[in-house]
Design a protein that fits this description.
Elements lengths: L4 H5 L10 H9 L16 H30 L6 H27 L11 H4 L46 E7 L2 E9 L10 E6 L4 E6 L23 E6 L11 E3 L2 E4 L6 E6 L4 E5 L10 E6 L3 E4 L2 E2 L21 E9 L4 E9 L1 H10 L2 E9 L6 E6 L8 E5 L19 E6 L1
Antiparallel strand pairs: 1-2, 2-3, 3-14, 4-18, 5-16, 5-18, 6-7, 6-10, 8-9, 8-10, 11-12, 11-15, 13-14, 13-15, 16-17
Length: 425
């Protein structure tokens, strides 16, 4: 197609004139789908003013929470990451969540009923220094040191009795040539026959107990603080766990002339005096504050009193015996008591309610006893002996029962929680 000169010379029809503002509006107008919100949808000025500060506050909160959690995971101590996470949540307002989850988990993981006897009662584990020693009596000792008579065999709580059940055997290093600690195991009730509860008997005439603070609990700096110092390890004979975290213990903590948490009247109390004599009793009734009191660790209420389990343990009136998982749920539990002649008895094992723990301690001779910590992470008892004759500070620990989770070296490291260590006098 050709374009003629006539076509070029013919003027085109002019478009109608538009106002300048209209032209600019047409030139810059973009349809709504071009990515720019319509001017009518813009947030009002007041809304824009508070949105940025709110985002800033949320960012600061997340930063602080994140720092706190990372600090908990990386803090010194022997706890694993899972335990640290749970304890962090519990300490930051999540205690109800943790308790609910624990109750649900334990209610669906209760120990089975019946079953064959536990291996520890059929084939006892060897001690740290060699095979389990044969039963002994203190009458055979040639030393003239004063000490308590050896404990009597514990009557079985399940029948028929097994040959090794409730029979005491020396544990840990000798003190002046005499066993200062005896241990045994027995089934805790006639129903859970595949479980074994470990029991330890300790002679305070040969042993001096010391309350050690953990590096985190109860908090602060203490003269006796984890780990057990190297200089004291040649005389270390045994150690066991303390009670609940103080916030859940319904009691207090006093040691070295300082109060970490106020002592409460009526609370079950493990008390050590200036002579190193321990006892267990109700604060304000059996023991009172005096210049001779060196350490007091309280936890809940007594579970054994007058040589018998306290009435109402199954009902747990007003949460006297713990509200975390419920006192009737069968879990790892521990407890300590005092006998009529002043010996300490400790018991711990899986599949215990507060009531069955009390019955075990009563059978072991306790006239007053208290529950200590619960759950497999916190129930520990170890006896110690020399690991290397050429190095007195080198000690080897033995668990009270083989299925205790923690390592026997726990209290020789930077343990998080407070505990009781017993040294040769």
């Amino acid at each position: 197609m050709e374009i003629s000169a006539t076509d070029l010379d013919t003027p085109t029809k002019a478009a109608p004139a538009q106002p300048a503002d209209a032209a600019r509006s047409h030139r810059w107008h973009r349809p709504p789908d071009a990515g720019r919100p319509d001017a009518g949808d813009a947030p009002p000025p007041g809304k824009r003013r508070w949105k940025r500060p709110l985002i800033g506050v949320v960012a600061v909160v997340l930063l602080v929470v994140g720092w706190s959690y990372v600090h908990a995971l990386t803090a010194p101590g022997t706890d694993g990451m899972g335990v640290r996470s749970v304890e962090w949540l519990r300490g930051h307002g999540g205690g109800g969540i943790v308790s609910t989850v624990e109750r649900w988990w334990y209610s669906h993981h209760q120990p089975r009923k019946g079953g064959p006897p536990p291996a520890v009662l059929v084939h006892p584990a060897p001690t740290a220094s060699g095979p389990t020693p044969a039963p002994t009596t203190r009458a055979a000792s040639s030393t003239s040191v004063q000490h308590l008579p050896a404990p009597s065999t514990i009557p079985p709580l399940a029948s028929p009795a097994l040959p090794r059940e409730g029979v005491w055997r020396p544990a840990g290093r000798l003190v002046h040539g005499v066993p200062a600690v005896y241990t045994t195991a027995l089934r805790p009730d006639p129903v859970h026959t595949s479980l074994a509860t470990g029991v330890a008997w300790m002679d305070p005439t040969l042993l001096k107990p010391v309350l050690f603070a953990g590096i985190q609990l109860p908090g602060g700096s203490w003269a006796h603080e984890a780990p057990v110092p190297m200089a004291e390890r040649p005389s270390l004979v045994a150690a066991f766990n303390s009670g609940f975290r103080l916030g859940e213990s319904r009691g207090g903590y006093y040691s070295e002339g300082r109060t970490a948490r106020p002592l409460l009247p009526g609370a079950a109390s493990l008390v050590i005096d200036a002579a190193g004599r321990p006892t267990v009793g109700m604060w304000g009734r059996d023991i009172q504050m005096s210049p001779s009191v060196v350490s007091v660790r309280q936890n809940l209420a007594l579970i054994v009193d007058g040589g018998a389990p306290v009435a109402g343990l199954d009902q747990n009136l007003r949460g006297q015996w713990g509200a975390t998982v419920g006192n009737r749920i069968f879990v790892w539990r521990s407890g300590v008591g005092v006998t009529r002649n002043g010996a300490l008895v400790y018991a711990a094992g899986n599949g215990l309610s507060v009531a069955t723990l009390a019955r075990v301690l009563t059978a072991a001779g306790a006239v007053r006893a208290m529950e200590l910590d619960i759950n497999s992470e916190w129930t520990r008892f170890f006896s110690y002996d020399a690991a290397d004759p050429a190095n007195p500070a080198a000690v080897a620990g033995t668990k009270l029962v083989p299925d205790m989770r923690a390592s026997p070296a726990l209290y020789l490291e930077a343990e998080t929680r407070d505990f009781v260590a017993l040294f040769a006098r």
